[in-house]
Amino acid sequence: MSYFARAGVWLGALLVSVMVCGQTLGLAYEPKPMQVTPADLEGHERLLVIFGNSRTEAAFDADRLERALPVGVRVFSGGGWHPLHYYQLARLHAPVLRPSRDLVLLDASLLSISSAPPGRLGAIRPEAALPVVALPELPTEARLDILLGAADPVYRYRSQVEAKFSSRLDAGAERLAPLLGSLRLSGPPPTAPAFTLVTDPDKNFVMKEILGDKGAFRRASRERLTRTVAELTRPAYQLAALERSVTALRERGITVLLLEVPLSRWLTDQLERSPQLAPYRRWLDDLAARTGAQVLREWPEALRDERNFYDDQHLFSAATGPVSDALVTTLRAHVHGL
């Protein structure tokens, strides 16, 4: 056998081994749920399902919503999620949610629409991968990211696995730091940061407070947001994903609510000066009119107080209650029977 033939055999064996290991580890790993369960449906006359991201995670308290409304509440969200992820969730939920009873509330903010892949796209499950990669004008690297995640569970769940073990690794590194320093195997401790973000221990993506120089944090955050707003776009594949998500649910008779999450007054003013906002809102209103969905974008002005937000777009945990209560009031005004 020639050298190139042997190399090809070894490369093939290596690829097969990697795939077998990946599939084995995938079977052993219990992934984050992406769909309501039969128990969710059987236990509630109506169900409110939220498709969101870090902004909705910070804005709404599912337990508080469930106590105030005659519905069960289930949340499917992830950091950096956008319409490509919602399209996956819509395809998984459309066949199981109950027509004329269940509701889907999904984040339709321009900030989410403008999010550009690749961004956690490997997390899209195999059963939804092909419809997502078929979206028009989706970048090639995004298609490859999705397909690789569909084929390899280790790649698909890498963010969740990393998050699960990173805190343990950080704690271990802190315990070893004095020993490594005494052996001259590590450098001096880093300079203390000007500020520290303290997370709510019970929630992902939700901040409890900022310690240190709050002004320095806000200046840095607003510089970044100013650049973000200036670079906002309306990618065709994101609009197509959102439209197909709404269509799939509405064709089944599921109530769909398109939500623009509350933002600080400063960030709201920045967005209103963007040339992208008005045409996007016209498109969204037209989508709602064509499909029978509803757009929810009005919030009490007091909730836009910048003191409620740690970075103008994510709420502090203390503000989650009032914003959840405002959502309850809005849902009661727009949905019959609530």
Record the SSE blueprint.
Layout: H1 3-28, H2 38-42, E1 47-52, H3 54-59, H4 62-68, E2 72-77, H5 83-93, E3 103-107, H6 110-113, H7 126-133, H8 140-151, H9 153-156, H10 158-182, E4 195-199, E5 207-212, H11 214-230, H12 236-250, E6 255-259, H13 265-272, H14 277-291, E7 294-296, H15 320-334
Rg estimate, integer Å: 22 Å
- Derived from helix and strand composition plus strand pairing, the structural class reads alpha/beta
**Mean model confidence by pLDDT:** 85
Major sheet details? 5 strands, parallel
CATH superfamily membership of the domain at 31-116 and 194-334: SGNH hydrolase
Approximate shape: globular
CATH topology of the domain at 31-116 and 194-334: Rossmann fold
Percent of residues in β-strands: 5-15%
DSSP strand tally: 7
Task: Provide the spatial order of strands within the biggest beta sheet.
Answer: 2-1-3-6-7
- Our count of helices gives 15
Question: What would CATH call the architecture of the domain at 31-116 and 194-334?
Answer: 3-Layer(aba) Sandwich
Strand-and-helix sequence, N→C? HHEHHEHEHHHHHEEHHEHHEH
Could you describe the 3D structure shown?
- The chain is of the alpha/beta class.
- The protein has a domain at 31-116 and 194-334: Rossmann fold.
- Helices cover 53% and strands 11% of the residues.
- It is built from 15 helices and seven strands.
- It has a five-stranded parallel beta sheet, with helices on both faces. The protein has a two-stranded antiparallel sheet with strand order 4-5.
- Strand 4 (195-199) and strand 5 (207-212) form a beta hairpin.
- The chain is globular and about 70 Å long.
- The N and C termini lie far apart (73 Å).
